[in-house]
Amino acid sequence: MKTRRWDFVSAHAETFGVQRICRVLRVSRSGYYRGGSPGRRHAKSGRAADDALLVEIREVHTEHKGTYGVRRVHAQLRGFGRTVNRKRIERLMRQHGIEGRHLRRRKRTTVPGRLAPPAADLVQRRFTAARLDEKWCHDITYVQVGGTWSYLVCVIDICSRQVLRLGL
């Protein structure tokens, strides 16, 4: 009885759509896709299919020296003609501890001169002062304003911890 239903759904799926036919016949779409659709009747079991897919994922991952993550592995498998859901690849990679390399570009903000002598440490890491205007300290920070970078400079008196100058 079920086989006839699945055959009916397969025969009329292009005209009416699988969802609508399954709703009218009161059968589950998942049942149709699990075993009733013509392309899936001889499919491997879920675990065997996952194991076979995992082998392919590992091949792609190791071929690219462990740099490929879920998106690139998915694109590579699709390039080989393998249709598989990206979330399934993500689940398998997560379960088996396979992950791509996350490289972040560092922004180099200070480039020291090779020939310039290093600046003298006049404070010598002692950030205390007995009276005002004995020691000052400053910091430079890069702030992105709109699409450009600006420099924020702050000078403080070490004794009072008061901001003496603030510049942008």
TrEMBL record:
Alphabetized Pfam families for the sequence: HTH_21
Provenance organism: Streptomyces similanensis
Record InterPro entries: HTH-like_dom, RNaseH-like_sf, Transpos_IS3, Transposase_IS3/IS150/IS904
Protein name, per record: HTH-like domain-containing protein
Residue intervals of the HTH-like domain: 50-106
Domain of life the protein comes from: Bacteria
